[in-house]
Amino acid sequence: GDSVTQMEGPVTLSEEAFLTINCTYTATGYPSLFWYVQYPGEGLQLLLKATKADDKGSNKGFEATYRKETTSFHLEKGSVQVSDSAVYFCALSGAGGTSYGKLTFGQGTILTVHP
Amino acid sequence: EAGVAQSPRYKIIEKRQSVAFWCNPISGHATLYWYQQILGQGPKLLIQFQNNGVVDDSQLPKDRFSAERLKGVDSTLKIQPAKLEDSAVYLCASSMMANRDSEAFFGQGTRLTVV
């Protein structure tokens, strides 16, 4: 079945450090790929997405590129801020099944940024 | 625009009791999802509705879980009887349509503790 694997966490960084959170997937067909973020006390919200190979999603300084050849969608940010502290989830959708819209999530990565 | 509303936010029950969660999606969203998020894991789909019809309930433990979406608007998820392993956050999400590119909007969730 479809699955998403994220790098083991948690991740702790100092402000202005470079961030990478690895995400790889296994899926049939050609899924869409997403990063969702959950800030403390809030619900999950979409951070960025990419719908086909070589697409780059970007938002709030975060970027991720859909790499079909390596089945990866790594999240990056050049300079993190304390306000980026949150839980980040990689997810896929529409991988050839009938349940379009259904999201398959990774286990989440806790990011803590210190001043 | 009002977001996805869920209630209650927290619930503590004893095993073998029953419990119900309520969700009101964003107005106009045809697709509604219930996810279960166990501590330390990513959300897992329990059931997906398109208007008032079930699209996918393959992961719903039907011997104890039930869900309905009467009139294609708000939805109720019920557990009867609850088990200790049902302790989790129950997330409701909605999207305008059920396709691979659709953004899902999540509520804040209901945290269930079964003792």
How would you describe what is shown here?
The complex is a heterodimer of chains A (115) and B (115). Chain A starts with a strand and ends with a strand. Helix content of chain A is 0%, strand content 49%. Chain A is mainly beta and 115 residues long. In chain A, strands 2, 5, 6, 10, 11 and 12 form a six-stranded mixed beta sheet that branches. A four-stranded antiparallel beta sheet of chain A has the order 3-9-8-7, with no helix packed on it. In chain A, strands 1-4 form a two-stranded antiparallel sheet. In chain B, the strands form two sheets. In chain B, strands 2, 4, 5, 6, 9, 10 and 11 form a seven-stranded mixed beta sheet that branches. In chain B, strands 1-3-8-7 form a four-stranded antiparallel beta sheet, with no helix packed on it. With 115 residues, chain B is an all-beta fold. The chains are: A mainly beta (115), B mainly beta (115). Chains A and B meet through strand 6, strand 10 and strand 11 of A and strand 4, strand 5, strand 9 and strand 10 of B.
Please provide the ordered H/E string of secondary-structure elements of chain B.
EEEEEEEEEEE
Number of strands of chain A: 12
Count the E strands of chain B: 11
Largest beta-sheet details of chain A = 6 strands, mixed
Mean pLDDT rating of chain B: 94
Backbone CA Rg of chain B: 13 Å
Low-confidence stretches of chain B: none
| Oligomeric nature of the chains | heterodimer
Measure the end-to-end span of chain A.
41 Å
Main attributes of the structure:
heterodimer; A: 115 residues; mainly beta; 6-stranded mixed beta sheet; 4-stranded antiparallel beta sheet; 12 strands; globular; B: 115 residues; 7-stranded mixed beta sheet; 11 strands
Summarize the entry for a quick read.
The complex is a heterodimer of chains A (115) and B (115). By secondary structure, chain A is mainly β. Chain A contains no helices and twelve strands.
